[in-house]
Amino acid sequence: MVRRWSMSVIDGKKHMKRVGELEVLEQDDAGSIQSSVAAITHLAKRKHISDRVKGVRLGILRHLCILVDCSSVMIEKDLLPSRFISVIKALSLFVDDFFDQNPISQISIITAKDKKTDKLVDFTGSARKHKEFLKAIAEEIPSGEFSLQNSLETANEMLRHMPNHSSREVLVIMGSLSTCDPGDIEESLEILKRNNIRCNFIALSAEMYICKRIAKATNGKYAVIIDEDDLKTLLSVFALPPVATTQLSANLIRMGNSDFRRGLKTRKVGHFVFGIHMKHGEGIGKLTCVGFICPQCNFKYCFVPMECQICGLVLASAPHLARSYQHLYPILPFEEKAIDKQMKKEYFL
Q1: Tell me, what's the pLDDT at 36?
Q2: Which pLDDT does position 90 carry in this prediction?
Q3: Phi, psi of 263 (to 5 degrees)
Q4: Is the peptide bond prior to 81 cis by the omega test (within 30 degrees of 0)?
Q5: Is the peptide bond before 103 cis (omega within 30 degrees of 0)?
């Protein structure tokens, strides 16, 4: 660890001020600094967990829109095998982590290339569906330029209709150091602030002023990765529920406890009827006798949680609701202790 100082001259006198500390990257016996980078990443991850504010209201009902930069700069190979493939792999792991931490939340994925945006997946709580689409776009070739304004406006159109009791969030993963926008991005920023949309950024190259400004203005976070492992660590931080803002309304939400059942019972005891279930965002699905039944309108779905397309009731199972309570009573951070010879004898065979 190295202390960092700044020098200023006031009234002809020099003044030294300590402004922070810098990590030292040390080489191992093989001349590699990978172990030092891994140690710094591990400490940063523990710091994120220990620095979480306790005793505050969290937004556990979230609608997160992920914007993925698919422009030509994502072909660069500073992350192996390429930036684009590394991001897709990291997002596949992030989806599982997100729904583990936020079982009643939903994610949407938008890709941005050729100065345009494309909605890859609409808001849904199915991790399997997200991973299938991510696997499909991994075969595409990034091209064109990235437009930050078009991306944020597309996310705004999807999020502004979400209920006030839900946390509206955007996570932008970008490798571009420039943006090709059709208009004034300051106007887009004001719209995001008016709709209470929180914007977070993960940069793969370097820091951009406009991105950092948007993140600060919308109470979001901005980070620049070190390597592929650091990308996964930063994504795991965004999987945790954020602190709720004052604009987030506190309302009682009607939710339906939808359990997995074998079709709809007929008047004759022991008999079942087949039904067509609704595939979220894809219209009518297959003809089956199993699924999740809405307790209010008896319509059938292939997965939960989701909002019923017929009556608007939020559907969730009992395990989803139970897992949402993990953030009310979180586990305290573990304390790391050095192992001496006596501890090895007592605890290790």
Answers
A1: 72
A2: 95
A3: 70, -165
A4: yes
A5: no
- Any domain includes 218: yes
Evaluate whether residue 176 is within a structural domain. yes
pLDDT of res. 59? 65
Name the residue range of residue 133's domain.
56-239
Give the full edge-to-edge strand order of the sheet including 255-257: 255-257, 314-316, 306-307
Q: Could you give the 3-state DSSP secondary structure of residue 262?
A: coil
CA distance 168 to 248: 9
Q: Compute the distance between CA of residue 271 and CA of residue 154 in angstroms, rounded to an integer.
A: 47
Residues 219 and 280 in one domain: no
Q: Say yes or no: 181 and 302 in one domain.
A: no
Q: How far apart are CA 113 and CA 69, in angstroms?
A: 7
Q: CB of 228 within 8 A of CB of 86?
A: yes
Note whether 151 and 46 are within 8 A (CB). Answer: no
Residue 49: per-residue pLDDT:
63
Decide: 296 and 313 in contact? Cβ < 8 Å: yes
Contact indicator for 106, 66 with CB cutoff of 8 Å: no
- Tally the domains of the chain: 2
Residues of the chain under the 50 pLDDT cut: 1-11, 14-22, 265-274, 280-281, 283-284
- Chain centroid offset of residue 125 CA: 13
Q: CATH number, domain at 90?
A: 3.40.50.410
For residue 173, is it within any domain?
yes
**204 lies in a domain?**
yes
The verdict on 217 and 284 lying in the same domain is no
